[in-house]
Amino acid sequence: LICAESAGRLESIRQLIEESNLGASEDVVFALHPQSVNTIADFMKGNERFGCCVSPLFNGFVWQPQQLLLITEAELFTQTARQRRSKETSNTDPDTLFKDLSELKVGDPVVHVEHGIGRYQGLVLLNMAGPKEAPAFEEFLHLVYAHDATLYVPVQQLHQVTRYAGADPDSAPLHQLGSGQWDKAKRKAAQQIRDTAAELLNLYAARAIRKGHAFEFSAHDYAAFSESFGFEETPDQANAIAAVIGDMTSGKPMDRLVCGDVGFGKTEVALRASFIAVMGGKQVAILAPTTLLAEQHAATWKDRFAAWPVRIVELSRFKTAKEISTALAAIAAGDADIVIGTHKLLSKETQFARLGLVIVDEEHRFGVRQKDALKALRAEVDILTLTATPIPRTLGMALEGLREFSVIATAPQKRLAIKTFVRRESDGVIREAVLREIKRGGQVYFLHNEVETIQNRKQALQILLPEARIAVAHGQMHERELEAVMRDFVTQRSNVLLCT
Fold first, then answer.
1. Which of the four pLDDT bands, split at 50, 70 and 90, describes residue 358?
2. Cross-strand bridge partners of residue 118
3. Which of 175, 193, 319, 350 is the most buried (most CB within 10 A)?
């Protein structure tokens, strides 16, 4: 007895059996056409040796006393089904798939892969039986399109419906069924993807044929610089450093992505690469997404290069016009070895005398214009990108081999695990937790996701925690004011940051 998941699948199996010519040889023990039955009991009562029925069973079995072999559809098509599933999931963003119908709410905008944007109106039962057949109800998703057109999607085809990812779900533009609007939008998107792919391929083809700079350095000096790292490298970190050194000394332009969690040691990989580039007579540009991060990097690099004849300059909004002018002159003259800054590094007024390495921290946080400038740089110099959260395109290019890829997945030995506590809110819990952190010289983020009431929360915290130095930060503040608050927090002028 063969069991299928639905009447439609049963018909497909019956057709497959007939087309595969079973019964052509003399030793076949069953009829060519399997008999349809409603239950296993019905099959056992009958005289047929070969039958099929609809059943939700996933695994079959052998029932020796009754001389019954039961095979399920899943067992018949094990390999084919697995291949099909992997193909479906590989082309779909897992974040946009609905894991379960309960995730859909009535009125939610959704996207059907063949018909475009509609609104989900709930589940309906429709009778799929013919006029003279017994009722056979099946569940469908009820979607409404422009001009109140209706589309019913079988729940088995849920994978074809994804979450609408546009900016405002309430004003999602509904497509008109049969109008060709959706096909036109898909064609336009596909063309843009092809154009981007062609541009990237041209860029990386140009890199592949161009001879890069093969860096040379003193092994003795490198060992001395490495010794100033106050920790033992993790295996992943050591592998990433070795891979970067291999790239830089190979004579081919480097474009490597180093991916690792916060605190796993990506910065040390960048420091070693900087050392090799500077000792090889080239300038290094370190690009950070925020002024604050640029300033932190500057402190780290100055600390590690303090014992070496290396000049480090900063380009950021925290610097005066005179300091920036002096830095730009030093960069153009080749007197500055390492330049650390935000996207100002990519402006036309920044002219490098002998740029050899660009280190990009969290590339996904830069805008389109900055990424285009980086793209132009990629054809000329070595690029090292550090990220904790690679964007899909960056990660995809790394996995496809367009960019080299190193993962730092092992945490340093002394890195403490994060502990998470869920507690009922009370003043006692808040005071105890904050004071424990402040007394050990630490700092506290206090998340409050309502800008309108954040000052009220600050007043309440000042009464509860008179010992704390509380600062407020949220996205509606002026950028310079926000940076000043963050700078004060980093330099320990404040020890509790109340923020969104």
1. very high
2. 110
3. 175
For range 209-219, the mean pLDDT: 85
CB 378 within 8 Å of CB 203: yes
How confident is the model over 234-286, as pLDDT tens digits?
999 999 999 999 999 988 888 899 998 888 899 999 999 999 999 999 999 99
CA distance 466 to 476: 26
CATH number, domain of 38, equals: 3.40.50.11140
Is residue 147 located within the same domain as residue 223? no
**Cβ atoms within 10 Å of 113's Cβ, excluding its own:** 14
The better pLDDT of the pair 469, 7 is held by 469
Q: Which two tokens stand for residue 433?
A: 């937790």
- Are 253 and 352 members of one domain? yes
Q: Is 72 in the same domain as 119?
A: no
Number of domains in the chain: 4
Q: What is the pLDDT of residue 24?
A: 56
Rounded to whole angstroms, how far apart are CA atoms 74 and 55?
11
Same domain, 225 and 156: no
Supply the range of the domain harboring residue 32: 2-79
DSSP 255: E
| 3-state SS assignment for residue 123 | strand
**Residue 206: both structure tokens together:** 């140009």
- Alpha-carbon dihedral 318, 359, 194, 368, rounded to 10 degrees: 0
pLDDT of residue 16: 79
Distant-in-sequence, close-in-space partners of 353: CB < 8 Å, separation ≥ 6: 283, 331, 332, 333, 334
Q: Are strands 137-144 and 116-127 parallel, antiparallel or unpaired?
A: antiparallel
- 358 inside domain: yes
Residue 389: strand pairing partners = none
DSSP string, 123-163: EEEEE-S-TTSPP-EEEEEEEE-GGG-EEEEEGGGGGGEEE
Q: What are phi and psi of 384, to 5 degrees?
A: -125, 120
Q: Strand order of the sheet with strand 283-287?
A: 312-315, 338-341, 283-287, 355-361, 382-387, 255-260, 404-408
| CA distance readout (Å), 99 to 152, 250, 342 | 19, 46, 40
Residue pLDDT, tens place only, 24-63: 555 555 556 778 888 888 888 888 888 888 887 878 899 8
**Closest residue by Cα to residue 284 from 305, 303, 259:** 305
Is residue 214 assigned to a domain? no
Supply the CATH number for residue 115's domain: 2.40.10.170
Query: pLDDT value at position 146?
Result: 93
Residue 289 and residue 390 in one domain:
yes
Q: Which amino acid does the sequence have at 123?
A: L
Q: Per-residue pLDDT for 220 more than 60?
A: yes
Tell me whether residue 457 is exposed, middle or buried, using C-beta atoms within 10 angstroms of its C-beta: 0 to 12, 13 to 18, 19 or more: middle
From the list 169, 154, 84, the residue with the least C-alpha distance to 112 is: 154
Residues 6+ apart with CB under 8 A from 359: 270, 273, 274, 284, 285, 286, 287, 384, 385, 386
